[in-house]
Amino acid sequence: MINMIQNAKDQVLALTEKAYKAAAAAGKLPADVSVRAGVEIPKDTANGDYTTTFALAAAKAMKMRPRDIAETLLENMDLTGSYFASAEIAGAGFLNFRLSPAWYAGVLSAVESEGESYGRSDALKGQKIMVEFVSANPTGPMHMGNARGGVLGDTLAAVLEANGAEVWREFYVNDAGNQIEKFANSLEARYFQILLGEDAVEFPEDGYHGDDIKELAQAYYDEHGDDLRDVSKEDRHAALAKFGLERNIPKMQSDLRRYKIEYDQWFFESELHNANYVAETVQLLADRGYTYEKEGALWLATSRILEENYRKAGKSDKDIAKLDLKDDVLRRANGFYTYFAADIAYHRNKFEKRGFDRVINIWGADHHGHVARLKGAMDALGLDGTNRLDIVLMQLVKLLRDGEIVKMSKRTGKAISLTDLLDEVPVDAARWFFNAKHDTQMDFDLGLAVREDSENPIYYVEYAHARICSLLRNLADQGQTVPAAVDVDASLLSHETETALIKQLSLFCEELRLSARDYDPSHLNRYLVDLAGCFHRFYTACRIKGEEPAILSARLKLADETRSVLKNGLALLGVEAPEKM
Questions:
Q1: Considering the chain, what percentage of its residues have pLDDT values greater than 90?
Q2: Which of 59, 241, 260, 430 is the most exposed place for a label (fewest CB within 10 A)?
Q3: Other C-beta atoms within 10 Å of 526: how many?
Q4: Distance CA 420, CA 185 (A)
């Protein structure tokens, strides 16, 4: 829970405030002036390691030039026992602080004492958060979008846990509704083609045309023969759908397990219908006055709900007119509830029945039009979907090999599925690359993912970890063990690559916080590449073996702590930290 960057920022403000009070007591600055100042890390560290705008923020209230205030503060500032070696004035009145060995030693101590917990915090403690992700239709193999959503959801859940939240991972199985009827209809057609001949039975134009449907129909026939030939269409569809789902869902589970993804629950849509929870939810919306009937169907007044929300948010009539708001069918004229009605019931279940404080859904970008509608439905139920339901939209994935777009698997000749991908690319590489920034279209280079050189970012990071492990083994063979942080003289780590590496270690806490705040665990990918780069530069510039004992000891400690943080970061991504490569 030790964040040395935040500690340094807090100390800058404390030192400045103490200097101000001393100057005010001596009559050199006006007393009792309230100052709201910020502390930043300058982009160019030649200007110092930390800077505060205290003097600029106080200038108006004190009726003094910022630089004069800064000079007075410096005259009354005591850095003894602090993390800072010096302070100086820059520009119009910025106060810049330079770190002392005490801060660098503090980073080493924090990494050592917290070990596998380094970087974690209690920022989200007490929050119960569900992350629902993948939730692919169980009617066929999972594809590239599922591969990306799986990693994004799983790593985001890990990041939220690392920030103290109680996290629940869930897969929503759409085992009811139109897509299951289409699934059964497709299986039925393929089943009768087996019985009567392919030319004798026309396949439905809107059916699922994949080879997997043919394989499932054949599997049913192989096990049961023609026992469905003369039963009712309803019974035949129920039997075929049940048979297909009982094979598809376990296959999805095993594929995701291979992908290192485990869920707390696989939640079945059918359970909502069987418990009349969908009907009950629709009735609640009706009781609140948000539904109406038209042409035999029951509609949700989505446009009215969203218009109310937009007005609360301060949008004008002109802004609202551009939104092209539409209402949604909840129950069709034939009495069947729509997917949207089931989705509303499912999210009501998340908030009302299971008590999640926040719900995060990982969706493809093609679902963007559904976001405001679902949030609005939660608002209509009094569940504050506007603030408690968050949707993370991810863009499409484009697979490339040698610069060419890949659409078909070389192994199967079919559209590439998650299984095909993992047969070609190591799981860790797939997890790394699919954790890239989710709001931009992704080019997944199959060739790059398996390269063993510095152009491949995961290889570059894993190699840094393995390189350190090799160094530690070699030095251990010579009787050199990693010292405790208290036995290291941090002032000896003064080379620019050494201080840069320690600063990079300190940034891990901040990057982990930002990953949770932004719902963007790709912060960790970028951080780990930078950390590996800092280590490689340090290792090139600063000799360890053969150095005098005190320097060797300090550099060995720094290398080992880099190894520890690399491992922590890779673990959050679900990626191994190899000790040999």
A1: 87
A2: 260
A3: 13
A4: 27
User: How many whole angstroms from its chain centre is CA 58?
Assistant: 40
8 A C-beta contact, residue 383 and residue 283:
no
Which residues, other chains included, contact 387 with Cβ-Cβ below 8 Å and sequence gap of 6+?
none
- Long-range contacts: 526-532, Cβ < 8 Å, 24+? 527/569, 528/461, 528/566, 528/569, 528/570, 529/457, 529/460, 529/461, 530/504, 531/461, 531/464, 531/501, 531/504, 531/505, 531/562, 531/565, 531/566, 531/569, 532/460, 532/461, 532/463, 532/464, 532/566
Q: What type of residue sits at position 44?
A: D
The Cα–Cα gap between 58 and 300 comes to 55
Residue 173: left if φ>0, alpha if ψ -120 to 50, beta else—which one? beta
Confidence band, pLDDT 50/70/90 cuts, at residue 144: confident
Residues linked to residue 298 through DSSP beta bridges, in sequence order: 293, 331
Q: In the block, which residue shows the tokens 């003097």?
A: 55
385: number of CA atoms within 13 Å, CB side? 25
Q: What is the distance of C-alpha 98 from the center of its chain?
A: 34
Per-residue pLDDT tens over the stretch 164-221 = 999 999 999 999 999 999 999 999 999 999 999 999 999 999 999 999 999 999 999 9
* 75-97: pLDDT as tens digits: 999 999 999 999 999 999 999 99
Burial of 124 (0-12, 13-18, 19+ CB in 10 A): buried
**Directed axis angle between helix 457-477 and helix 522-541, to 10°?**
40
Distance CA 315, CA 317 (A): 7
Q: Token digits for 407?
A: 């659409």
Which residues, at least 6 apart from 219, have a Cβ–Cβ distance to it below 8 Å? 243, 247
Q: Which residues contact 294 (CB under 8 A, 6 or more apart)?
A: none
